[in-house]
Structures are given as structure tokens and as C-alpha cells.
Amino acid sequence: MPTNFSKINLIVYDFDGVMTDNHVYLDQDGREMAMCHRGDGLGVGIIKKLGIPQVIISTETNPIVARRGEKLGIPVIHNVKDKAQALRDYCAEKGIILENVMYIGNDINDLEAMKLAGIKGAPKDAEPEILSIADWVSSKNGGYGVIRELARELQG
Fold first, then answer.
1. CATH architecture of 5-155
2. Does the model's pTM come out above 0.90?
3. Residue 4: pLDDT band by 50, 70, 90 thresholds?
């Protein structure tokens, strides 16, 4: 199904499973690490140049999410219990209409927030409940260039 990217005024990313491969790596001291795709970082930069704001909304409490957002230069809302409410609040604060939001998620904790968004996106390895409502599905698995692919499509 063709997707109308022209109305996007905000892109929201889940972190785990979209910006990462949904794995967590633990060292002997219990510190967590995650794998992120460098191409996605480039994709975030391209989307910025297109003038589209981006934000990460995550339930994760680990500082990895905040550090990744800081490195990419995009806001992060993490340690979120209710992503739908976080999305409503963020859009209200920024004056963005939910219909003009693209939300990219991969798991059932994204479902209610995605239902609010005008455009729903997902990595190809997202959960079936997410894929069933997605307007745009990447040809990539989460953590393997989903955002870079989106940036390419947004560029036209």
C-alpha cells in the first residue's frame, strides 16, 4: 500500500527492536550493551536535513537509550509506562497533530501509540500485531538499517 510521507511532521521511533536488533548484551558486571546500525545514524541525519523532527519513545530505563539519542541529536523520552500517553503529551506540547505523526514500532507495547499515529511503520521482523496495522514495512529487520531505508524513501 502506498504511503503518503508528505504529511509527516514528526517521526517517533521505538528503541529496542527498531534502532537495535532487540538483543541485549550483558557483561560480567551486569552492564547492558545494545547494537545500533551506523546507517540508521546517517538516516536520522538525512531526515533532520529534510526538516522532519524525530523523537525516541522507549519503556527502557537503561541509559543506553538516552546516550544514543544524545549522539544522534534527537530527544528521548524513556522509562515510559504508557507510550500512547507519552505520544499524546509530546504532540500536545509541540503542537503536532497526531495524524501527521509517523510512529515506527515493533512490539505490542507500541500498539496503542501506533494506533494514534497517522502513519504506522515497522521493521520486517516486527510482531504480527504490529505488522497487521503497519502502513509501511521496512525490508530490513530492526537494528539493521530501518531508519536509513526510511530516509532513502523520504528523499524520494
1. 3-Layer(aba) Sandwich (3.40)
2. yes
3. confident
